[in-house]
Structures are given as structure tokens and as C-alpha cells.
Amino acid sequence: MLLHNDRLFPSEPSALKVARSLYAHIRNLPIVSPHGHTQAAWFATNEPFPDPATLFVQPDHYVFRMLYSQGVSMDDLEIGQPVVKDPRRVWRIFASHYYLFRGTPTRIWLDYAFQELFGMKERLSEKTADLYFDTIAEKLKAPEFLPRALYEKFNIELLSTTESPLDPLKAHQAIRDSGWKARIVPAFRPDAVVDPSFTGFAGLVAQLGAQNGEDTSTWKGYLNALMKARARFKTLGCTSTDHGHPTAQTADLSQTDAAALFGKVIASKADAAEQELFRAQMLTEMARMSVEDGLVMQIHPGSVRNHNKFVFERYGRDMGADIPGPTGFVHALRPLLDRFGNDKNLTIILFMLDESTISRELAPLAGHYPCLRLGPPWWFHDSPEGMMRFREQATETAGFYNTVGFNDDTRAFLSIPARHDVARRVDCAFLGRLVAEHRLDEDEAFELAHQLTYDLVKKAYRL
Amino acid sequence: MLLHNDRLFPSEPSALKVARSLYAHIRNLPIVSPHGHTQAAWFATNEPFPDPATLFVQPDHYVFRMLYSQGVSMDDLEIGQPVVKDPRRVWRIFASHYYLFRGTPTRIWLDYAFQELFGMKERLSEKTADLYFDTIAEKLKAPEFLPRALYEKFNIELLSTTESPLDPLKAHQAIRDSGWKARIVPAFRPDAVVDPSFTGFAGLVAQLGAQNGEDTSTWKGYLNALMKARARFKTLGCTSTDHGHPTAQTADLSQTDAAALFGKVIASKADAAEQELFRAQMLTEMARMSVEDGLVMQIHPGSVRNHNKFVFERYGRDMGADIPGPTGFVHALRPLLDRFGNDKNLTIILFMLDESTISRELAPLAGHYPCLRLGPPWWFHDSPEGMMRFREQATETAGFYNTVGFNDDTRAFLSIPARHDVARRVDCAFLGRLVAEHRLDEDEAFELAHQLTYDLVKKAYRL
Amino acid sequence: MLLHNDRLFPSEPSALKVARSLYAHIRNLPIVSPHGHTQAAWFATNEPFPDPATLFVQPDHYVFRMLYSQGVSMDDLEIGQPVVKDPRRVWRIFASHYYLFRGTPTRIWLDYAFQELFGMKERLSEKTADLYFDTIAEKLKAPEFLPRALYEKFNIELLSTTESPLDPLKAHQAIRDSGWKARIVPAFRPDAVVDPSFTGFAGLVAQLGAQNGEDTSTWKGYLNALMKARARFKTLGCTSTDHGHPTAQTADLSQTDAAALFGKVIASKADAAEQELFRAQMLTEMARMSVEDGLVMQIHPGSVRNHNKFVFERYGRDMGADIPGPTGFVHALRPLLDRFGNDKNLTIILFMLDESTISRELAPLAGHYPCLRLGPPWWFHDSPEGMMRFREQATETAGFYNTVGFNDDTRAFLSIPARHDVARRVDCAFLGRLVAEHRLDEDEAFELAHQLTYDLVKKAYRL
Model-level pTM? Predict the structure, then answer.
């Protein structure tokens, strides 16, 4: 066995016993995945996944960033290529470096898929590379490994993808039209048309106007077009927006000033500070629209994107070279909160990449403002230690009920059950310790385990 | 039982055994409470506390901020009202949301009072709301629940309140005059007359002058008046000052520049930066006075007060909407330390709301400067995890002896024994782990447990 | 016994069992010490160490900063004096304050030396002060306590000192010439000739020119002189450089702009910002040289040096008054990384004093850039809790293989075995917990224990 049944639980017997019981209680609950980056097209077309390298290595920046950090060439891994030409060669490179992932969540996620989906029993290594490749490649051809079959096998109740307002959502529509009874919905991610630093921003905004029958050369038409795009997403089940700004800065300009700033931005005359101010203003505009249409806001700030110039120029975005920076919330969110912070119809879910903010800013904010909730630990912190630190640093001030369950936030469809399993285990480990230290009664821990796994996410995301 | 005898101790048996022994050794030591926000008037008049809602809900921002964060109306809780009109209704709202406090220190403090003082055995909930209300309301009428009786029952050796220099301290005087043998002393908190951003600052400074027979329109008269007010506090047992500035910034201007700045400030012509500079200068002036008169300084920086505009405008200050921000000490304290940092007659106790400063700045500062000590984890960090992280992050560099025992820092008189009990248990848990991991000898742990509970606070606060 | 055989291991039996086995496997591996501040002259002359106070108290700022923080006079400890006149008196002061070190790594290091080298069995205290003094003083005279004998007894395979480019390295040459088969090498630390804020900077740069036959009044001659000095260090076994800048800021100016800046700096006309820019540029120049000559770069940023004005003026540098400040890497390193971040011939080892950067910036950077590695927790964090937090916060994103084993980084030669022992124990404790929680297989833990102790350091430092 690659995986022990008690993995991630405390080794101390009294806490272990509670953690085991709690986990038994919730391990089979359906997966609710309200935020992620899988592709609706997989489920619309239901084509088989091509091969192990294309499935596990090429799209996963957690995987290839680690290999790259240890001197493996991204070209050798065929990163950024439209098709992997020599998947077995890529797989062998990956396998012979698999030891690099010791102690990382990637290792846990992959071992889970290898064991649970593909029945592997011996650890991946140079020696077992071909056995793995052949076994996985073979199984991927089988009907039970098609995307829809896996979706059902994974016991997914809801899966949200993340899409641009410019996306026609044809795949989502096709899934609906197919009559397949799965709930796959889009989240509205407008970064490309609200962040002036995006390449081709003005053209994208014009496209937004054209698609929605609005004149987006005016501030009012621009806002109308966004509102219409949101409405279109809602017809396909969307309940949330998502905002991946460099910072959490918000602003609350007068509409006159906002319109003037928009004019500058759309004319590509805005400097860096004005671009930041525009993004800030747009978060507040998005909150205003959310108050109207009920979409839950997600804010994912603090990533310094494309940090490696060479990698960006050669391979493009999302190549494992995004590095978090210090992030502030307490001053940054104030303009938005001054305006809408006490509105009962607003929910904003905050994510962080800077752990120093958990106990200092995020828990106190979420433990006071009725609109604020804390998203689960994100990205580099979506890991056993990261999740445990999050619970330890957030719970005493924000409680459990200002958190929103788990997000897998993944491009790697096959990792979804593994990621949810890790989150469930870590929550049970945390609750188990609280019970073993007599800080929580056991009946409460059972109730909480269920809520952290299932109820809070449905409530927070209005599902 | 609501509370287990081993709560907050490690569940691992060898560490648990040591923690239990240590706790048995110190659990009954008297409470020394050198910093807090109880009201001397309670003990001067010795009137019964009115009802459960007025006692436990209305004044406790830890309680109602959590309820508010989950959509409970502050109006329904009668927050900010002079008298609670329908205490049973408020209590029922509170009881039916009591589950929100799972995993928080508030839950531990309240359960302690419910069990130890009021003999409750079943958990507070919607179902038990009336039982709790009736039981507590009944007991509050009994003589053994009068403030003075509780003070004695709590085994308090000293209790410090926190008062403005403008306070006539009549209640403190009345306690002394009554002949009751309790040691209730004021701490000198001059924020309202040294922080120009306080509403009505100039008028308050004028009042300070009038009270002390000094012309506070001049810098010299202003300093004299503060010195006289400090002397007045000392006659009633005061041994410490307290400073709740937005930052830890200090300054060391020439007296000419300071006088000019004071002129600007008092004429309400100072901008935000000048107000900050004035506060910074005043910390250094306060240190100078402390060198003279021996009052121990406490600095509580880093809270962004009244963050929620709506709540502030409707309900006022201290309504659960204060949010910490990033706080720096290493540069901020330097002007003061350059001047007085090596003075043997000065003690400055530093508090923090930004945990990233513990290992980075605070422990190295306190582990070097003879005048600096670290206050216990404050406010949002006055919690089992917060205290444990503080010990883990401070001890290796600052040692135990540059810390000062526990502060309850509370407005909630009935929570005092619970808060000290939590601190004692967490210290015993930490020491128990050190012994179980053979990082400290058991005899040393016993000595330390006593010192952390009793001796260090008396030494640091010069009691 | 002062020390328990299981010290620093988890007390939970299943994790303890693994930690013990891992430790048994690696405890006797040779010590590789690639960065530190011992003196080559000790081994060149092989004179006995003078007395206990001169050995343990006077040079160790960890020791006397703690004593000073608790009111012990630095004069009474004869700090900063060329010779300790009354070593027994100093020793007695130290012994009577030894309790201050409870819970600190200093205590562990000292107890290790006391027990393992000097055979002490009772704890150091006022009572045992003279017994310790006499025993240690006596043993120091014995041949087996001479520096070379201790070096061999400690099983040191390599020891690096840290030297200025101006140092003639006579002691290193003398060791080589003596025929003694030890590997003692210098690291190249150019701060004094690349940081314009150093006292006498221009004169030191001129001296650098004179020593290397270059005209260091020109930018080109200056760079040539540095290159030659590096080459000279390499002939004596040097494999690394070290840079202790106030920040991690780098720059990548054109050579024209860099030459102009150098002109300003050497003429003492650069302001603080220009001095910072020059240091930043020099880090990039050093990286360029490292790409050429293969020396591994170490960057130790973030210390605010000489924070205590009085102590600096009276006693000088390195007197326990250096305090860390907030440190940024993500933006600061970008200019250097844009230029050389993907170069296969470059290794940069990053150290930190600001733990909030571990999970936020350092692990993501090292988990991507092929040139970056994470140094072990430095200075105030070279401690059991600090090391454990480092592993917990770095491993999930950077893995184990982007770390470089342990640095003792000490001036205290006798503490070297103790420091490595602590690091080995903490690594075994961390690995033991991962195994006990089924997050790592036991065979992998054995391999990792060996690599963390021995292999990674040799690889990273190119030894």
C-alpha cells in the first residue's frame, strides 16, 4: 500500500482515536467543489485523457516547478508544448525525480490517485516508471476512466470551473443540453476585463461590449456589460465571482471620478498607480453588483505573477513562477467595507498567501464583519501543515463558522478526491486534538466535522 | 461537567503527567492582575450585578463581535443601550448562537464561570437558555455574588484598573476610605491627553491643566500637569502607565522642537504625520517621567481602531471593530531606546497584535535591552494557541525571565479567574512538553511555573 | 547527567521510536561546517584556550546579551576587554545567572560541552561555579583540549571560516604548510569593501587595490581586484562567498551607471539610498563572478546592526545588539534573478531572520528557481523551535532537496558538536513525526536523515 489508513492523523493514541471516528463519519460525504480550474470541455466531450505525462506532469505547475528548481529542463518535460510528443520519456524523468516530492502535498495527492484509481502498490521511482506508465495508459482507455465516469466515481455533487466574462460557456451549455445529471457551473472571473495590466485590455473590454450589446467605451456601458455577463453566467448556475488581483486594495471613488479613471485606463494612459486604483475601484463595483445579484465574491490577492522573466518570455503564464508577496487587508479592504461591509446580502470570501495575516488581520476581520468569510488555505498553503496552521491561527478569533469548507482550486481533475481527502483528514486531526485536550466536546466535533466538510461550503457559496 | 480537569494539557501521557503536577503546584496561587479594564466603582459601591445579559453579553466585545459576524443584529442584543430592557430576550439570542464560540477562548472563559460560579452542568444552548438565565439571575442577588465577595472568592491579591489622567479616582479613594482590605489600584492611561486624534483633545488638555494647577497652553505646563497627575495616581497605589497608540513609533525631538509641535497640536493645526510625531515624542517624554518616578510603562500598539464606520457612527468606540495591522518595533522604538534604553530605572512592557514580530523583533529586543520586557499575548492572542505560540516563539531568544506573567486585560470581571486559569494551564502545558522532551529539568519547571504565575508579574510591575 | 539521551525528540512513543532509530543512524557522521566564524589562527598556532570565562562568556553574544537584558553589567563581565583580568569573577556572575538560559538553545549547547567535554554532572549554578571553573580550567591545559585535538575529536570533515578580502589568510596558509590533515577553508566575505556604510570604506577599497595590483579608483579595477581576491581565496580551498547586507535588495544597472555610482560611493558622496543601490548592484556583480568562478553565494540579510547606540559607542560591533527587521525577498531579488536566476552554474543560499518569509516567499522561490537554496534557520532561529518551524513551513513547498543541511555559524568552537547535534536531533524529530503520521515511509526517512546531515551540505557548497 502506498497510503496508510491513518495518514495525517495525530500519532498520539487518544487524539488518533477521535480523529479516526470523525473521519469515518465524513469520509464518504459528497464532494462539493465550489472553486477550481478544471475544464468544462472535458465533461462536454467526455474524451479519454491522453497519457500519464499529459495528465499528471504537463499541466501541473506544482510538479514541474519542483523539477525545474532541481535543474530539470522544462523543455525536456515538454512544458508549454501543445502535445506531449514523447510522454514515456517525460514520465521517466518525472519518475526518477519523484523523491523530490517527499514531504510535499503533491506526493500525497499523486500517491492517492496512483493507489485509489490505478491500483499501484509500489512507490513511483525510476525502477517502476514503466510499470506506472503502462498501467495508467492502459486504464485511461477504459470507459470507467472517462471524465464523466470519474466525476461520478468521485462522488462530486457540484464542480465549479472559473471562466472569463468573454467565454461563451459553450461547454457548460453543452453539458446541460446533454441531459447528464451533473452540476458543473462556472465562476465569473473578470480579471482580464477589470485589470488594465492585462495584455490587450482595451480590446478585451471592447469585446465585452460587443458580446453584451453595450458601448463599453463609456463607464456606464462598461458596468452594464459586466452586469449582463454576470446574469448570463447565472443562467448556467454560477453563484460566485473570483478576483485574482495583485493586492486586496479597494477604493470607493465618486462615479464621476471613476468614469474619468475608466476613460484614462481604456485609453491606455493610466500609470501603474492608476491601474491599481482602477482595480481597487472595480472590486467595490463588483461588491455593489453582488449586493444586487447575490453572487458571492472571492478575492485571491497577493501573488506576484510571472516572477521569472525568462520562464515567462519562453513559456508564458502559470508556469510555476508565481511568488507570493506581503499582503495587507486591514487598510486595503476599508473603502469597500465602509460602503458594503454591513450589507446582509453580501458575502466576500478572502483567501491569503501571506500567513502572517491570518491571526493579525483576517480572523479579526471575519470575526466581526457580517459579509466576510475566510477561504481555506490557498495554493502553497493547501497542505497538511498549512491547513493545520490555518485552523490554529484562525479559529480562536474567527471561530469555525466564519470559514467556508474546502476549495480544491485545481487544474488537475484526478487530484480532486485526494485534495478533499487531505482536507477532511486534517480537519479531523485538528478536531481530534481539541477533543483530546478537552477543548471541545466529542458530539460537537462530530457536528463540526460534517459542517466543515459539507454544510459550510454550501451555505457560503449559496449552493 | 462542562470542563474537564485536564483541559488544555497535552494529551500525550508523559507531558500530561508533568503538566498536571505543575498545575497542582500553582493552581491556587493568588491572582495578580496588573492590567485590565474592570471598574473601581463596582467595588466602591458593591452593588449586585444586574442580570445575565448585562453581565455577560452587553459589555463583552469578544461575544457580540462574533454574533454580529454571523448576522445577529447589534440592536437585537441591545448593544450600546444604557440599560438592557429585555435581558431574557438578549440572553436567548446569545444562547442559541453559543455554538459559534466552539474552539474560541470565549467559550472556555464562559464555561468556567458558568460551572465554577453558577454550578451549571449542561452546555448553554437554545434549550438551556432559560435555565441558565434563571439560575444566574437568582444567584446574582446573593451576597456571595457581590463584587467584593467575588473579589475575595477569586483570591485576587491585586487588581489594576486603567484610568484617564482626568479621572478624579473617587472610586479608588472610596475603596481605600471604606477600610476594605483589597488592593485595587489605577494604571495611568494618558491617551486622551497625549494623542491629538482624540475627539476634543485641546479641551481635554485644558482640563488637565485646570485640574493640576498648570498652564497647559505651554509645553512646560503641559508636562508639569502630566507629572502631577502621575503623582496623584501614585498616591492611590498606581505603579504603571499604559499607552494604546496606533503604532509603537517614538521620537526624541529637542525641547524647542517639541514645544513648537505641541503648539501646533494644541491649536488643532497638526496634520496626521505631525499628530503621529507628537504621539511618538510623548512616548519618550513618558519614558523620561518613568525614569524619574518609577512608573512602569506599558505600550499596547498596533490596533486600527473603529475600523467599521457604520458601527462606529451608530454604537461608538470599543464595539468589536478594532482590527490589528502590521506593527514594527525595531525602528519605531529606536529614538526612545537611544535615549533611555540602558537606564536601570526604566521598565517598558511591550505588547503585540502582530505575531510575526515575536521571533523577529520582540524577543531579540527584550533579550538585549535591560529596560524591555514582553507582555503576555494580547487581545486576540490571549488564547490557548496564541499563548503557546508566544512561548514557542519568544522563549528561545528572550528566555522566560524577560516576560512578565499574565494580564487578563478584561472588562469582564467574572472572567478573571477563567483567564488566569487558562494562562496557568497553557504555561504548564508548555513546560510539561519541555520536560517530556528533556529540554528542561523537572525541578526547574516547578520553579518556573511559580515564577510565571506569581513572581515575574510582581517584579515587573514593581508591586 | 545534564542531558537526556532522548532530548529534543517527540515524547509520543511511536514518533520517538522512529526519531531514535534515525538518530542512531546519523549521529556519528562527520561534521561538515561550511559557514562559521571560528578563527583559523587557533588551528595554526594550536595554543590552549585560556580559561572558562574567556572561552565561554566573553566572545559569546548569545550569552552576554541575555545577562545584559537582565541587568548584569557588561563591564562586570569584562566584555570588550582584550584580556579577561578576573575570569573566576566573570564565571561566577555567569554561573549565578545560568538559570536565565532555561528554555534557550544556549543552555543546550553549553550543557553539551560541559557534559561531553568536561565531564560535568551537576547543573551549573552559583553553587557549582567554582567546581566548573576549576575543572574546565584544568582540562584546558591538557593536550587533548588543544584546538587541533578538539577538531579531530569533534570528527570535523570540513570547517569554513569567514574572512575579509583584505585578509592575507596567513593562518590558513600556515595550517596547510604545517602538514596537518584538516580541511579548514575560508569563505569570502566582502562586506567591508562592497558596503559603503562601513567605516573607512574608501581606504579599505584602496587597500584592496594595492593588495591585488589593481587601480580600485576605477570601477573596472575594483571589479578586477575583487575577482583576484576571490581567486586567491579559492587557492586555499574557498568554495563560497557570504554577504551580510542590511537587506536582500539587488540591482542590475548598466555598467555605465554602475561605474558612475561607484565613483560617487568611493568619493563618499553617496547618500543612504545610493549606498543601498550600490550594495544591491554588488550582489548582482558577485552573482556574475560566481557564474564565472563557481563560488557559491550566501546571502544573510535582514539584521539591523548595532541597534543600541550606547553599547555600540562603548563596546563596538557584534555586542548582542543586532535586531532583525522585516525582510523582503520577492521584489528585492528580482533584478539579480532576472539576470542570472536560470543559470545552471549559480547557487545562491538564502538565509532569513524574518520567519514570515519562509512559507510566503522563500519556499516558493527556492521551489522554482534552479539557482536558489534555503540555508538553515539562522541566528535567533538556530534553535529547536526555530528549526522545527523552518521544516514545517519550508518543506511542503520547497521540499527537502532545496535545503542545504546545517550551518553552525558560530564563533564558539566548543559549541560546534552541540549545535550539529541539536540540528540532527530536530531533523530526526521532524522526520519521526512524518513517519508516525504516515506522511513519509520509514526507508525514505533514513535516506533523508543522512542527506540532511551530510550529503546536501556537500552538494550545495560544492565540497
Answer: 0.98
